[in-house]
From TrEMBL:
Signal peptide positions on this chain: none
Coiled coil feature spans: none
Classification lineage: Bacteria, Bacillati, Actinomycetota, Actinomycetes, Kitasatosporales
Protein name per UniProt: Cysteine hydrolase
Originating organism: Streptomyces paludis
The Isochorismatase-like domain, residue ranges: 7-188
Length: 194
């Protein structure tokens, strides 16, 4: 019998995203999961959404990201505007990667879309993902579906995910996700790996 190699996937916990989902208990709870993973020898992988200058990866037809094309910085934007944009899309400092931790940049909602996540996981022998992130109905749902189709084992830390709509979060974590993943809490998962 082989033992599954797990990785904790922390998704879209970037300053600009965190600011849109105010929950003062979320980051400390997520930090507990990150600390437990590090202490237990479980790799922590951060997935962030990002685009090249000028957003060449974004289609105007894309309802979620197409607005970036209309709201983008004007030609000749100064260094201050660029620095502000980089700060907004940076991983929140409360769960910032440690040296040696992998950060993948995705171009759409799923952590796999437009990133090298699958290659990183397979190269590392990782076959089980522990999912956390913002939002439950966005990156977590999309990544869970794609990871399941790629035959990864899955765990979702229900309180390590956050959504603007508590009812949507509840339905996903209690009814939808259990069809493809084990769903548990940060505290219960952390107790198992320490």
């Amino acid at each position: 019998m082989t033992v599954a190699q797990h990785a904790l996937l922390v998704m879209d916990v970037q300053r600009a995203v965190v600011d849109r989902y105010p929950d003062p208990a979320y980051l400390p709870r997520l930090r507990e999961a990150v600390d437990a993973a590090r202490a237990g020898g479980v790799p922590v992988i951060h997935a962030v959404v990002g685009f090249r200058p000028g957003y060449p990866e974004v289609s105007a037809r894309n309802r979620m990201f197409g607005g970036l094309l209309r709201a983008g910085a004007p030609a000749g934007a100064d260094a201050t505007a660029t620095a502000a944009a980089e700060r907004a899309t940076a991983i929140h400092p409360d769960i910032a990667p440690e040296p040696g931790e992998t950060v993948v940049t995705k171009r759409r909602v799923s952590a796999f879309a437009g990133s090298d996540l699958d290659m990183v996981l397979r190269a590392g022998g990782i076959d089980h993902l522990v999912l956390t992130g913002i939002a439950t109905s966005g990156v977590v749902l999309s990544t869970l579906r794609q990871a399941a189709d790629l035959d990864f084992g899955l765990t979702v830390l229900s309180d390590g995910c956050l959504d603007a709509d508590p009812e949507v979060h509840r339905v996903l974590t209690e009814k939808v996700f259990p069809q493809q993943a084990e769903v548990t809490t940060v505290a219960d998962w952390a107790a198992k790996i320490r």
